[in-house]
Every structure is written in C-alpha cells, then in structure tokens.
UniProtKB/TrEMBL annotation:
<protein>
    <submittedName>
        <fullName>Putative ABC transporter ATP-binding protein</fullName>
    </submittedName>
</protein>
<dbReference type="InterPro" id="IPR027417">
    <property type="entry name" value="P-loop_NTPase"/>
</dbReference>
<comment type="similarity">
    <text>Belongs to the ABC transporter superfamily.</text>
</comment>
<dbReference type="InterPro" id="IPR003439">
    <property type="entry name" value="ABC_transporter-like_ATP-bd"/>
</dbReference>
<keyword id="KW-1278">Translocase</keyword>
<dbReference type="GO" id="GO:0016887">
    <property type="term" value="F:ATP hydrolysis activity"/>
</dbReference>
<dbReference type="InterPro" id="IPR003593">
    <property type="entry name" value="AAA+_ATPase"/>
</dbReference>
<dbReference type="InterPro" id="IPR017871">
    <property type="entry name" value="ABC_transporter-like_CS"/>
</dbReference>
<dbReference type="GO" id="GO:0005524">
    <property type="term" value="F:ATP binding"/>
</dbReference>
<dbReference type="Pfam" id="PF00005">
    <property type="entry name" value="ABC_tran"/>
</dbReference>
<keyword id="KW-0547">Nucleotide-binding</keyword>
<feature type="domain" description="ABC transporter">
    <location>
        <begin position="2"/>
        <end position="241"/>
    </location>
</feature>
<comment type="function">
    <text>Part of the ABC transporter complex HmuTUV involved in hemin import. Responsible for energy coupling to the transport system.</text>
</comment>
<keyword id="KW-0813">Transport</keyword>
<keyword id="KW-0067">ATP-binding</keyword>
Amino acid sequence: MLEAQDLSIGYGKSPIGTGLNLQVREGEILCLLGPNGCGKTTLFRTLLGLLPALSGSVLLGGRPITAQTRAEIARAIAYVPQAHAPPFPFEALEVVLMGRTARLGAFAQPGKTDRAVAEDAMRHLGIHDLAHRDYSQLSGGQRQLVLIARALAQEATLIVMDEPTASLDFGNQAQVLARIGALAQIKGTASHGVILSTHDPDQAFALNARVLLMHRGGVLAEGPATEVLTEANLTTVYGLPITVESTLSGRKVCLPRLATDTSATMMPDAMTSP
Ligand SMILES: Nc1ncnc2c1ncn2[C@@H]1O[C@H](COP(=O)(O)OP(=O)(O)OP(=O)(O)O)[C@@H](O)[C@H]1O
C-alpha cells in the first residue's frame, strides 16, 4: 500500500536520513522509533508527499506519490497530528467532519452522508457522546480519539500518526493504544494500515507491531518488534543499558537502567550533538 525505496530525507540539500526502506500494508502497524531529532517527523512529511525526497521514491498504491494530487493522497492516507487545543471553539463532530472535507476537496460542502460517516466513526471509537462537546474543552485523550475519528471519517486505508500518545496520562495512553490496535485488526474492507511514531518501545510490543528503528541518519533494524527491539539495539540507539524482560502474561517490556552516577551514563547522539 505504501512503500519507501532507498529514500533520503531532509531539508534543502542536507540529508537527515538516507537508505530508508519501508512497507506498510492493510492490517499492519509500523512503529517508528528513534531518539529525538532522528528524523521521524521529517520521514512522515516525506511519506505524506508534503516534503520532497532528496532521492529515492515513495510509492502509494504502486504509483509515485509525486505523481498524485492532494485529493488522491487524502483518499489513501489520513494524518493524525498530536492533539493540541485549537484557538477556536469547534464541536467535536465538526472536527471529525473535517476528515470528509479533506476527502471532498477544499470547496465542497459535506452533506448528509458525510455527517453519517463522521458519526459512525465517533461511534466506532466509543466517543459518540462527545459529538456536541466543545473540542477545545475535551481532555487530551478525548481530543486524540476525536482526531483518530477524523482520520476514520476520511475513509483512507492508511493512517499515519505522529506520537499519538504523547502528553496523555497512563490510562489514556492505554485506551488510545487499544483503539489503534483495533484499527489494524478489523478484517475485510475496514482494515487499516497504521504508521505511528512513538518514544515508548513497550508500545510496539503491546501492538505486536513491526518496527523501524532509526539511528544515526539511517535504519538500524526493521522487522517484528520481538526481533528488532533487542537489548543490544535499544542500548545502541538510546545510549544507556536497557534490558528486555517478559511479563507473566508473556508481553515484553523494556527496562532502562537508571544510573545515579551520571558520569557513567552514555547519552544518545541526538542529545549530545551540538
Ligand atoms: N523545517 C526544517 N528545516 C530544517 N531542519 C529541520 C526542519 N524541521 C526539522 N529540522 C531538523 O531535522 C532534524 C530531524 O527533525 P525531526 O523533527 O524530523 O525529528 P524527530 O525524530 O521527529 O524528533 P522528535 O522525536 O524530537 O519529535 C532535526 O535536527 C531538526 O532540527
């Protein structure tokens, strides 16, 4: 569905990442993991066709994304940004309806069918009762679910999410994560492919996702979470000793060693480079 081949990403002429290859199909979740500043957002912008690739290609449905119109891209990919409070009061349902506008084009007015699709998306995520609430007054977790509903209303098969659980409390993180997992698990036409960035490797284990682990401007490893998120790889990328353990329920979790002696702590490249 979406494929990047030998992609170089960056701004102007300087590459931030090179040799990037990835593939996402319906029913799959791909987690982008890597330290601050490694290029996850830049990669997203390139995959969405918002930023030109420095070299290599992005194929959407087998065709170069550069050859597709914004409307074509919007029918295939929905983007879920981090949930910030907007300056203007919108009803939550109006925010979800914006997913239809992305699909219809800037000047088309959403009609009855669009409203029904938007309401269905909210119902599907269990937030229909928020439809007429002021979006700016919702909690962070509720806002994130509204933005995911907006992506569902767009009826794109691929959903790209930029740190969907950032700034959510523990309970809301679990709730949003469960909804994301369900998006890929639905069988048939409603199944989605999901690409998300996160700073929490445990989420990749919880979602049973594939992982693209970014490091020093490239990909250190790509594949199932259980194969990519090894102690050695995590320790290399995050620059401190990390162990991976199995819980009683069988899920893997990552445990960084919290050094009290800061002189013994290695720092990741992104944090130490000027
Ligand atoms: N518009 C821009 N012009 C030039 N450089 C930029 C621009 N936006 C980001 N960068 C640089 O590109 C690099 C990668 O940034 P990016 O935001 O893609 O990283 P990230 O992995 O998403 O980081 P984080 O995990 O902190 O969100 C950084 O060094 C950043 O300073």
